[in-house]
Design brief:
alpha+beta; Arp2/3 complex 21 kDa subunit ARPC3; 5 domains; five-stranded antiparallel beta sheet; elongated
Length: 765
């Protein structure tokens, strides 16, 4: 005997029961008590969707007889099934697939018995034709949605036509369920309550409201009673209000609306415990409905999953970018190694002396008639004399007749030629060494830059290595919060950039983009202070994109006060205030050598290079070393005193980098702290050792940075510090102005040099 698969059998039985109930509901559905096109249309649609005809046929027959047990109904049902079954199995035997238009023909023919009985009963044939047309249209609508869900599955968004088809089926089911009640227990409320809750959490608000209206219209066309339209819409609104919270809140909202509708507004003919029971059951079913299934349903409505696909693309692109940046970083590192290996290794002093000694002998002594006697008898003495002459030439720049020993001049007639040759060869070799040194310096500079670029790229690679974690729950809450404060926001994306930084990107109306309330609303939802750091026009007209991120603990305001040296058109002092990535601010003063246009150019070049290097993410050592080498390679002497501060606004740590710059002061309630430097200016020597020091600042601390024109106006740093402490502080700008005024007073209001004061005040956000 053939073994029966119990699970498969049970599945078939469950399907069979569901088919019976579905057809029974559709047999109860009607339009204005005249047309009943839904049951036979659904029968042919399910057959087209490859559902088992041997299950559909008896289910259709049983449901039809239960809804209307009569001989006339039985004949109509059997004719309908005959027209379906015979062509269906003929196509199976012929191994041909029935096409949609063929189903359309058969669905029309299946209603032959219905038309005959309508004519015999004196009904208008036009109504029968209309009923058949409606049934065929319902079949095609059902086929459209079955093609999307049964055949294609929950893998892609529904098209507009498919959405319309889905609502048509909901309308037909509502039209049938409204006529099925057991002791005032409404199956319509059970069905609509459940699907509305599902829609509110997996579809857009518009679709949810349309579903509520469609379900109400289904009941209306079947009973000519509009009493369900308003309650269903109110259910949808109550569910949508709490959709961004836990399911239970939406359920409570819907139940409260139903109780108010029944007891207070009296929208129903009768209302009691039995009448509210269907909605309670629907709510319980929704409560145990898995969130995983809600997410799968959301795919077909292009709500969360479509955006999740976008987010997956973002993370995938970050992964690809991480890999490519890593490879690119390795390329630059290999190039750095190659350039360093290309450096010429300088010969030792002994090797150079030996080569030049040999070259002088070849050039001078080769043609001397006394060569053999001289080099045979006095070989060691001659070699020693030549070595000493070469050494003297390297040390003093040239040799003279006085440097040649008397015993050599007494027997050698080529002393003048020897002197000229030694001076010429050592001079040429010095020029060669200088040239090679410059070439090597250039190679080292390039190698340093390649290494620095490699480090920056590797840093970027690590930054994009981890996936971005999006927070869809907070996105919805932000939209609700902004809407509550009358700020129109059509989209919001929230994600974590790193463990310290959360970023929110909003698309708001242009007229709302400047409202300060936005930062408060986003911060309230995110549970931390958020600050706007970027805004730009959206691709959608009349909308602006606002990017907010976790606000750092501190922020800064500044004051700047300057005066140019008397009788000088331009100041040689340049200052910079630049916000860097990672909640850091760079502030600096560059004091070029001298004053006037040339000093200004030197200052601007130095500071511009440093500023751009910092923006690119280079390290302190690489930045200062590179700028110094670039300045030292200049044909003319270019010197610049550099004073740099980089403050991390998240923790208040300041990196001070000073090169031949005056003392910097940190002023607070505890007193005055000095940060000084003894290093040389930038551009004097190839290798530099800038003073680098870390300091911690707190709220209401003042950082005071000055050029040497200010500091030199006072006797010493202690006197300058006392002057600062005696000043009355109001704000950074007034403090900067007061310091400049004190410096000028020391010189009878005469600017002996370019004067610059930069004051930074740190405050807690």
């Amino acid at each position: 005997m053939r073994k029966i698969n119990l699970n498969a059998f049970l599945n078939q039985m469950i399907k069979f029961v569901l088919y019976i109930f579905l057809f029974f509901v559709l047999f109860k559905a009607n339009v204005n008590f005249i047309f009943q096109p839904f049951a036979f249309g659904m029968l042919f649609a399910l057959a087209w969707a490859n559902q088992k005809v041997y299950l559909l046929s008896p289910a259709y027959l049983i449901a039809g007889l239960v809804s209307d047990f009569s001989l006339e109904q039985a004949i109509i049902l059997l004719v309908t099934l005959f027209v379906l079954i015979v062509p269906y199995f003929i196509h199976i035997l012929a191994k041909k697939v029935m096409r949609k238009w063929e189903f359309g023909v058969f669905v029309v023919l299946s209603q032959t018995a219905q038309v005959v009985f309508d004519v015999l009963n004196g009904n208008s044939p036009i109504l029968s034709v209309i009923n058949i047309v409606l049934g065929a249209l319902f079949m095609f609508a059902s086929i459209v949605i079955f093609e999307a869900l049964i055949i294609r599955g929950f893998t892609s968004k529904l098209t507009s036509l498919e959405l319309v088809s889905l609502f048509v089926i909901v309308l037909s089911l509502s039209a049938g369920l409204v006529n099925i009640n057991i002791q005032n227990f409404s199956f319509l409320k059970l069905f609509v309550g459940f699907i509305l809750l599902v829609f509110s959490f997996s579809a857009t608000p518009i679709l949810t409201l349309l579903l509520a209206i469609t379900a109400g219209l289904g009941a209306l066309i079947s009973t000519n009673n509009p009493m369900f339209v308003t309650p269903f819409v109110l259910w949808a609104l109550a569910s949508l209000i709490f959709k961004n919270h836990h399911k239970i809140f939406s359920i409570i909202g819907v139940l409260c609306v139903e109780i108010l509708s029944g007891f207070y507004f009296q929208l129903y003919d009768a209302f009691g415990v039995v009448e509210i029971l269907p909605l309670i059951i629907a709510s319980l079913l929704f409560l145990i409905f898995p969130n995983k299934w809600l997410n799968e349903i959301a795919v077909i409505f292009n709500l969360s999953k479509d955006r999740m696909a976008m987010k997956n693309v973002v993370n995938r692109n970050r992964e690809i970018l991480h890999r490519r940046l890593g490879n690119l970083g390795e390329v630059f590192n290999e190039m750095n190694i190659i350039y360093r290996n290309m450096l010429k290794k300088n010969m030792t002093k002994e090797d150079v002396t030996k080569i030049l000694n040999s070259e002088i002998c070849d050039k001078i002594c080769s043609y001397c008639p006394e060569k053999n006697h001289c080099h045979r008898t006095f070989a060691e003495d001659t070699k020693k004399v030549f070595n000493e002459l070469i050494t003297v030439a390297f040390e003093r720049g040239k040799v003279t007749l006085l440097d040649i020993p008397s015993y050599l001049t007494s027997r050698c007639k080529q002393t003048s030629a020897i002197l000229g040759s030694v001076n010429a060869l050592t001079s040429q070799y010095k020029k060669y060494l200088t040239m090679m040194s410059e070439v090597d310096a250039s190679k080292i500079l390039i190698a340093d830059q390649l290494l620095a670029i490699s480090k920056v790229i590797n840093s970027l690679s690590k930054e994009v290595e981890t996936n971005v974690s999006f927070d869809t729950v907070r996105e919805g809450k932000i939209l609700d919060e902004l809407t509550y404060h009358n700020i129109s926001c059509i989209d919001a994306v929230v994600y974590e950039k790193d463990i310290h930084t959360e970023i929110a990107s909003l698309v708001v109306r242009n007229e709302d983009s400047s409202k300060l309330r936005i930062e408060d609303c986003v911060g309230k939802v995110c549970g931390q202070k958020m600050a706007l750091f970027e805004s730009y026009p959206s691709m959608r007209p009349n909308y602006t994109v606002l990017n907010l991120r976790t606000s750092p603990r501190f922020d800064c305001i500044f004051g700047i006060s300057q005066k140019t040296k008397e009788n000088s058109k331009m100041s040689g002092d340049t200052y910079s205030l630049t916000r860097l990535d990672g909640d850091k601010i760079l502030f600096a003063i560059s004091d070029g050598m001298g004053s006037g246009e040339e000093a200004e150019n030197i200052s601007e070049i130095s500071l511009s290079l440093i500023e751009n290097f910092y923006k690119a993410g280079f390290e302190n050592e690489i930045i200062l070393s590179t700028v110094n080498k670039l300045l030292s390679l200049h044909k003319e002497d270019i010197f610049s005193a550099i004073d740099i501060g980089v403050i991390d606004l998240r923790n208040g740590i300041v990196d001070f980098i000073k090169m031949a710059s005056p003392v910097t002061y940190i002023l607070n309630d505890d007193g005055l702290k000095k940060i000084s430097s003894t290093s040389l200016p930038m551009g004097i020597v190839d290798d530099i050792s800038p003073m680098v020091k870390k300091e911690v600042v707190n709220a209401n601390d003042y950082i005071i940075m000055v050029s040497d024109g200010i500091s030199d106006s006072f006797e010493n740093d202690d006197v300058f510090g006392e002057e600062i402490k005696n000043l009355k502080i109001k704000n950074p700008q007034e403090l900067a102005d007061d310091i400049l005024r004190c410096a000028l007073n020391k010189n009878s209001d005469y600017a002996v040099d370019d004067l610059t004061v930069l004051v930074i005040k740190v405050f807690e956000r």
